[in-house]
Specification:
Layout: E1 17-24, E2 27-34, H1 39-46, E3 65-68, E4 71-74, E5 87-89, H2 102-109, H3 119-134, H4 153-159, H5 170-181
Parallel strand pairs: 1-5
Antiparallel strand pairs: 1-2, 3-4, 3-5
């Protein structure tokens, strides 16, 4: 060992697993998961759905955003074991067959991506955000009126603030979302 200390200790415990049925993009997947496994890792490593990206792995960048029962979540912070019977939609499930989701088409039309790394999370977050606004959920910048939510640039920026873009394509992202919101 050339004078280096060799430290030994107890062996790592075997993982605890759970059987569940995961519903992703309309498909049912009976699966056995390690109870510590995140949804992001399940999607990417087990189901081959690599749209959601592992950016920060701390829930700060939004690159891993997916929809869970219609609401946006950071899949790097969501344990797969908690999702038995819940509906997950990743960016791969947004399109309707060969027809793009309106947000996907608007992102293309407005050049709302540059490197594309954040785009899947931006798209899923935008879908969830539009549903929240349609339901009348206020944000930190929503005026206190009974007129509903007006998705102007400030409102869209606030609602999308959990999704970062390293390339700085925010102007085009906001324009694409604004087009679909109208």
């Amino acid at each position: 060992m050339n004078g280096e200390a060799h430290i030994t200790g107890p062996e790592a415990p075997s993982p605890i697993t759970a059987d569940l049925v995961l519903s992703v993009n309309g498909e049912r997947y009976p699966i056995t998961v390690d109870t510590r496994e995140t949804l992001l890792d399940t999607l990417r490593e087990r189901l081959g759905l690599t749209g959601a990206k592992k950016g920060c792995d701390h829930g700060q960048c939004g690159a891993c955003t997916v929809l869970l029962d219609g609401r946006r979540v950071k899949s790097c912070l969501t344990l797969t074991v908690t999702l038995d019977g819940r509906r997950v939609v990743s960016v791969e499930g947004l399109a309707d067959g060969d027809g793009l989701h309106p947000l996907q088409a608007a992102f293309i039309e407005h050049d709302a991506f540059q490197c594309g790394y954040c785009t899947p999370g931006q798209l899923c977050s935008a879908v969830g955000m539009l549903a929240e606004a349609a339901a009348g959920w206020p944000s930190a910048v929503t005026p206190e009126t009974d007129a509903g939510v007006d998705l102007d640039e400030e409102e869209i920026r606030e609602r999308m603030s959990g999704n970062l873009c390293r390339c700085g394509a925010y102007v085009n992202i906001v324009a694409a979302i604004g087009e679909v919101a109208r």
